[in-house]
Amino acid sequence: MNRNIHPILLCGGAGTRLWPLSRRDYPKQFVRRTGAESLLQGAARRVSGPLFAPPIVVTGHDFRFLVIEQLAGVGVQPQRVLIEPEARNTAPAILAAAFALSQSDPDALMLVAPSDHVIPDTEAFRDAVAKAVPRALAGDLVTFGITPTRAETGYGYLQLAPDAEPRADAPQNLLRFVEKPDATRAAQMIASGDFLWNAGIFLFTARMLIAAFCAHGPAVLIPVEAAVRAACCDLIFMRLDPVAWATAPDISVDYAIMEKASNLAVMPFSAGWSDLGDWDAVWQESGPDARGNVASPHSTAIACADTLLYSTSAGVELVGIGLQDIIAVATPDAVLVAHRSQTQRVKEAVAALQHKGAVQATQFRTAHRPWDENPHGLWAKRIEVAPGTTFNLQPQHHAATHWIILSGVAQMTHRDQVHLLCKNESLYVAAGGLHRLDNPGNVPLILLAVQTEAEGGVTTNHPQSAVG
Amino acid sequence: MNRNIHPILLCGGAGTRLWPLSRRDYPKQFVRRTGAESLLQGAARRVSGPLFAPPIVVTGHDFRFLVIEQLAGVGVQPQRVLIEPEARNTAPAILAAAFALSQSDPDALMLVAPSDHVIPDTEAFRDAVAKAVPRALAGDLVTFGITPTRAETGYGYLQLAPDAEPRADAPQNLLRFVEKPDATRAAQMIASGDFLWNAGIFLFTARMLIAAFCAHGPAVLIPVEAAVRAACCDLIFMRLDPVAWATAPDISVDYAIMEKASNLAVMPFSAGWSDLGDWDAVWQESGPDARGNVASPHSTAIACADTLLYSTSAGVELVGIGLQDIIAVATPDAVLVAHRSQTQRVKEAVAALQHKGAVQATQFRTAHRPWDENPHGLWAKRIEVAPGTTFNLQPQHHAATHWIILSGVAQMTHRDQVHLLCKNESLYVAAGGLHRLDNPGNVPLILLAVQTEAEGGVTTNHPQSAVG
Fold it and tell me: Residue ranges of the Nucleotidyl transferase domain (chains A, B) (predicted)?
């Protein structure tokens, strides 16, 4: 049977455990290093191609445009963006997607995938999905089980049925979902060989998922169905009804139905996966060198071992000296230094910062965001232009910008007009306006570009006042 | 005998070992934490009062105004600022001060003191200086010997004469200067009880110092004498002649004369001293709490021990989790994380950064300096004003400033004129100009204040151009 799979990208996580890189107001699935794609972009790319329909994304109100922008960056246009009025964990989010999908096709296949995981081998993943399709079409709730590599206490586990093959290349019978174990129990489970990690990736039809909620989760079903029915649609955005949504319980899909359902199957997957759940996982996934170190650009390791040095910005140099088993993450407004064994306590730190009223607990301080790393807000950049030269305008300079001359003389070409500006003069240019910037003088030209509109296309004329 | 002592404040150090707080272009003696005085200010205050003449400061060209400004901040006006055309270690600097001083009084008493040390007990220090005076007037070169508290390998030592009392409250005979020892030798010296630390603090007459150079350091004497004779004087600034100065050897006063002279004495001093020579010393001097931690404002320690967490800026939150014996120093453009036992390797790190071309090796990046902490450069600050309210203008807003309206409406009162500005309009106000800033509208007013002149007093009119 050849039918499209509808990817459901869950994009509502707050990613607090990767603070300060990830914060409530700009969580880790969106974070994009220079030149690299975000986790969301990676997830979207992974579920594109002949097997798949365009994805449905479930996210929060504040992130709806960011989702569109980031997906466009990897050539993906979602079929729909479901907007959660508030975060309600995975059960309501997945069920809402099922209801939205079943409006056009009640038997549509849904591949539910978190947007903040890393799966390096795209082909292996698509292959596993394809192999799981028949079982999902047969009416089972198929989950993907990761071959465990350590006695991790941070994940839930999947217990295989006695007849199952944990390393098989086809869906297996699943006995049950197991909640996060303690260290002893985790070690026992790993030793038995009968358990896989629960990665929160699922394949099923919309119909079967809704049926499972009918049977096991009516308390979720009723408000979510109402929130979808009363949703407000605008282009591809579907804003779930906030009144109905507010009555939906905050509950995971595992707890709501998977731990109760009997039509379960698991597709083993061993080609590599990480949820980048904490900084220790990031260290592990980043490929430590022979001494166990991971050092980003703009970081310098001297006599370190088993250490992650990560500067998120070209504006911050990070130096580590004589460190062992340390995670150091430097952003322009917040720095984390933690022992590798303690990275799960980052949430505590965020709570402590929130308690003391530090904005960095949840937000990035606008003034510190470099232009090339954050698509939102306001940027100011100091630019020096040598005498007699032309400044090469980067794409961000095509946005609406105030150009302030700090010293020297600037010749700015805008449409067909040439403006000469001296110290303390300024020029406001709407998006897309400026064509050329020259320093015609004999001294260095220093100017400040203050970008006031993140989105392009603003072309309204705005006059300026001058007072000496 | 009651005559004034002329303090010679040596203010030419680069302070590289306290990177990133201290950098070549703004070394540690000038660094001022919010509300606290700089080390230079502390040193100047320590040598003021009835015993002392106004100080002579020896510093580099780039720091001459900063010296004046910082001394004025503690009510001190130097009698002279000697400007070294380039750094040449302590021997030429001290000798130049002796020549400058002997122009008016060849028998003037000189108290040579580094400007970047900490001596908490000012009265004890002044008392020790007073007790050393007779010996200096009698023609000896008196050094101050710190009672050692550990087998430190980072300092030079002073070996007492056999008849000396290391804990006496009067100058003692000194056998010799000893260069920095290795760990074994340092332990032996501490055990013997015959050694004190050489803190680089001296008392002698200008005449006797010059005489010592005549006897032991003619290679220093000749160029330095010429550099003072051909110096260019401007108000209190005395710029040493660069041509003569360039031929002076780069040599410490210990090595040039103290290790050779026989008219030596030492005044023991046990009331507390630190050269803040590295981050470990800073940790020690900062008064660790019961768990051994030192945490600055804007830093948070969770499950740490024997650790320094130091954020230099209100704009950077620093968090440490599970750390033991770690130094973490966060500035807006550079972060150091080092094991406490490795802090002497910071110079290596600075060299590595210089090698890779990172400006942070030697400079502070202007764009990252917050307004309230740095007197130089360019500041941009985002300001929000609630509807119907007046924004209270801080002193820094009285500097020359571009005000850019990002959203809402601003009513700006300048002299007798009231200006209404809307989104994307801007207003340039010269220093001291703006009187009031109101939000007369119904929505929040968000504006950006870009300060382009650090020094006040600029009142020239500058027109602006506008292009939409």
Answer: 7-286
Coil, strand, or helix at residue B404? strand
User: How far does Cα B119 stand from its chain's mean position?
Assistant: 14
CB contact under 8 A, A433 and B382: no
Q: What per-residue confidence (pLDDT) applies to B426?
A: 77
pLDDT at A117: 94
What tokens appear for A177 in the block? Answer: 């979902």
Which chain A residues are within 8 Å of B315, Cβ to Cβ?
333, 365, 367-368
Q: Is the pLDDT of residue B374 over 60?
A: no
CA distance B305 to A401: 48
* C-alpha distances out from residue B92 to A245, A335, B96, B107, B248, Å: 78, 42, 6, 19, 7
DSSP one-letter code for B274: B
> For residue A41, what are the β-bridge partners?
none
Kindly state the DSSP code that residue A395 receives in the 8-state scheme. G
C-alpha pair distances (Å), B284 with each of A410, B250, B292, B294, B327: 52, 31, 9, 9, 11
> Any CB–CB contact under 8 A between B414 and chain A?
yes
SS3 label, residue A292: coil
For residue A65, give the nearest of A394, A347, A403, A455 by alpha carbon: A455
CB contact under 8 A, A425 and B464: yes
Specify whether the CB–CB gap between B58 and B95 falls below 8 A. no
**Which residues make beta-bridge pairs with B328?**
B309, B337
Q: What are phi and psi of B302, to 5 degrees?
A: -120, 120
Render pLDDT for B380-414 as a digit per residue (tens, 0 to 9): 566 778 787 777 665 555 667 778 888 888 888 77
Distances (CA, A) of A299 to A3, A295, A333, B279, B354: 48, 6, 16, 19, 13
Instruction: Please tell me whether residue B100 adopts helix, strand or coil conformation.
Output: helix
Q: Are B372 and B362 in contact (CB under 8 A)?
A: no
Contacts of A419 in chain B (CB under 8 A): 465, 467
pLDDT digits (tens, 9 = 90+) for A73-110: 899 999 999 999 999 999 999 999 999 999 999 999 99
| pLDDT digit string, tens, across residues B104-135 | 999 999 999 999 999 999 999 999 999 999 99
In B90-149, the residues whose Cβ lies within 8 Å of chain A are none
Q: By the CB < 8 Å criterion, does A435 face chain B?
A: no
Under 8 Å between Cβ of B136 and B203: yes
Segments making up each domain of chain A, as ranges: 5-269, 279-365, 378-451
Q: Is the pLDDT of residue B61 over 70?
A: yes
> For chain A, which ranges sit under pLDDT 50?
1-2, 366-378, 454-468
Strands A172-178 and A237-239: unpaired
Among A324, A332, A428, beta carbon nearest to B426? A428
pLDDT exceeds cutoff 70 at B261: yes
| CATH code for the structural domain at A5-269 | 3.90.550.10
Distance from CA of B12 to the nearest CA of A (A): 26
Rounded CA-CA distance A275/A267 in Å is 18
For residues A120 and A45, the answer to whether their CB atoms sit within 8 Å is no
Distance from CA of A384 to the nearest CA of B (A): 13
- Tell me which CATH homologous superfamily contains domain B378-451: Jelly Rolls (2.60.120.10)
Q: Which of A87, A137, A149, A78 is nearest to A108 (CA)?
A: A137
Alpha-carbon gap, residue A231 to B2, rounded angstroms: 91
Alpha-carbon torsion (A220, A226, A228, A229), positive or negative: positive
Per DSSP, the three-state class of B384 is strand
Q: Please indicate if any CB of chain B lies within 8 Å of the CB of A185.
A: no
Is the minimum CB–CB distance between B450 and chain A shorter than 8 Å?
yes
Residue bearing the bigger pLDDT, B26 or B308: B308
Smallest Cα–Cα separation from A227: which of A330, A82, A368, A400?
Answer: A82
Cα→Cα distances B169→A56, B164, B271, B440, Å: 83, 11, 11, 70
